[in-house]
Amino acid sequence: MPNVLIVGGTRGLGQSLAKQYASGGNKVYATARAASPPQEDAQFPITWIGNVDVATETAGSTITSGLKGAVIDIAIITAGYFGKESFDEPDFDAEVKMYKISSIGPIFIVHHLVKAGLLKQGSKVILVSSESGSITLRHESEGGGMYGHHASKAALNMVGKLLSLDLKDKGVAVGLVHPGFMRTEMTKSVGFDKFWDAGGAVTPDEAATSVREFVDKDFDISKTGSYWAPRGPADIGTAEPVLGPKGSLPTPLQLPW
Questions:
Q1: pTM reported for the whole predicted model
Q2: Cβ-count burial 174-204 (b if 16+ within 10 Å, e if not)
Q3: 5: part of which helix (H) or strand (E)?
Q4: Alpha helices in the chain (DSSP H)
């Protein structure tokens, strides 16, 4: 069974992915920011790597040390932060934090994994992005604001594309996914829970199932450097005005940059 690394495994999508992969018999490693990560659960055997803050330069070396030489078949970087802001009330520190976690940290993590020989031919790297990072999908009906969230995800998309070019000759596939609009504390913290029902928001478990099936069955080196919505267009509010009728769009859906 594959060795799986989940970066950001203590809550939300990352927690659901870690548990699903572990319950499927995979050897799962997951990271936590806390120095003392969760204890192993016999039902979900996960090897925890603590003291991993994706916003710091040392995250990659901490992860590689914690892996103790284990080659990773699937690495999913799902750690995130969503700071609420608007044009009238921008937040400099929140924006910097979003960029560090979303689009700077993943570079250093992947760099360390490759240089340590822990990603090899056939390995898959999945960066959890969002449809909010698509410039094409931005539509005036949704308005502006949330600069750090949208722009850091757009930057992550470029990071993923560049990593795919650097790693293609090594046989390592790099993909970006929009996991779906989720019912999480993160989206609730910025007031998006009021859109959950109308926007078709799903639970982290539902999103994790879609991401896992896409990664396991559909994603390989032929799709490296591309950007996908495994759940299709259902929860993408601007899909119809930008891409056309949802009924004519496929699932999984390749998203425009």
A1: 0.95
A2: bbbbbbbbbbbebbeeeebeeebeebebbeb
A3: strand 3-7
A4: 12-23, 59-67, 92-99, 105-115, 147-167, 185-189, 204-213, 239-243
Instruction: Identify the burial level of 244 via C-beta atoms within 10 angstroms of its C-beta, where 0-12 means exposed, 13-18 middle and 19 or more buried.
Output: exposed
Instruction: Report the SS3 class of residue 171.
Output: coil
Whether the bond between 204 and the residue before it is cis, its omega within 30 degrees of 0, is no
- Per-residue pLDDT, 195: 64
The pair of structure tokens assigned to 144 is 């502006």
Compute CA distances 200 → 113, 145, 181, 197, whole Å: 36, 22, 7, 5
Of 228, 199, 224, give the one whose Cα is nearest residue 213.
228
- Structure confidence by residue, pLDDT tens digits, 219-229: 999 999 999 99
Sheet-wide strand order for 74-77: 46-49, 27-31, 3-7, 74-77, 124-128, 173-177, 227-229, 253-254
Both tokens of residue 32? 């936590």
Tokens 């990560």 -> residue? 37
pLDDT digits (tens, 9 = 90+) for 185-210: 777 677 677 667 766 778 999 999 99
- Taking alpha carbons only, the member of 28, 35, 34 closest to residue 14 is 28
Instruction: Specify which residues 228 forms β-bridges with.
Output: 177, 254
CB 52 within 8 A of CB 32: yes
**Alpha-carbon separation of residue 126 from 75, 141, 145, 164, 247 (angstroms):** 6, 30, 27, 11, 27
Half-sphere exposure of 35 (CA within 13 A, CB side): 0
